[in-house]
Specification:
Elements: H1 2-19, H2 21-42, H3 53-63, H4 75-89, E1 100-101, E2 111-113, E3 117-122, E4 140-146, E5 152-157, H5 159-168, H6 175-186, H7 191-208, E6 211-215
Antiparallel strand pairs: 1-6, 2-6, 3-4, 4-5
Length: 216
């Protein structure tokens, strides 16, 4: 039974280490082992698939794990940040290129988001965390998406970009209308500046692959 227990632990841990190497490095062997054993002992997985073990681990951390004094305050956010890369890398979503004009007008057309994209907001700069790295709470906005090369990319963005991309989730918004909404919400004194800067931003996001064109 002891041998069997060891094999179960090593198999589960190997899947977790693939997804959460930074978390493991930050916690160290002792705290990491305690966390994984608590996951094994207390969490009832809803999926039989090994590749979804990291998903189950995230649910465990968010819903069942209580941070101790020795746990970093950013632990759950860091784990989620690392998990996002796996989730996007295995996503089966694909754009319908027949409905997308890759050379269309980003202002007058309706910009289309990369279907494998996630807008992230954290209270900690999770992308800068590592073993021995000291960080302070900082409102952090990140954009993660799978590019044309099938590699997941992360970009640090701001609240403006995050809000703009959120408006593109509503298919009826043209680029110009979305920028007008952002300008109104921010009470910017010169909406023209917002639209001009927003167009530059959209072109950059198109080049990077976060936007993939406009709707036909």
């Amino acid at each position: 039974m002891r041998i069997y227990q060891g094999l179960v632990y090593k198999n589960i841990e190997s899947f977790l280490l693939t997804c959460f190497p930074v978390l493991r490095g930050v916690l160290g062997i002792r705290r990491w082992t305690r966390l994984v054993r608590a996951f094994l002992a207390n969490h009832h997985c809803q999926s039989p698939f090994f590749r979804q073990i990291p998903d189950e681990f995230i649910h465990f951390l968010k819903d069942e794990w209580t941070l101790s004094k020795s746990d970093p305050a950013y632990m759950i956010e860091l784990a989620h940040y690392e998990w996002v890369e796996l989730a996007l890398s295995i996503s089966s979503c694909e754009p319908d290129w027949h409905q997308i004009d890759r050379e269309g007008d980003l202002l007058e057309g309706r910009p289309v988001l990369n279907p494998v994209l996630s807008r992230l907001q954290y209270h900690w700069p999770v992308h800068r965390i590592g073993p021995g790295v000291r960080v302070v709470p900082t409102e952090t906005y990140l954009l993660a998406f799978r590019g044309a090369s099938d590699q997941v990319q992360f970009m640090e963005v701001n609240a403006f970009t995050t809000r703009l991309l959120g408006l593109f989730e509503a298919a009826e918004n043209t680029g110009r209308r979305a920028l007008e909404i952002v300008s109104e919400e921010s009470q910017h004194p010169d909406p023209g500046v917002v639209i001009e800067g927003g167009l530059v931003l959209m072109r950059d996001l198109l080049h990077r692959g976060a936007l993939i064109g406009v709707s036909r």
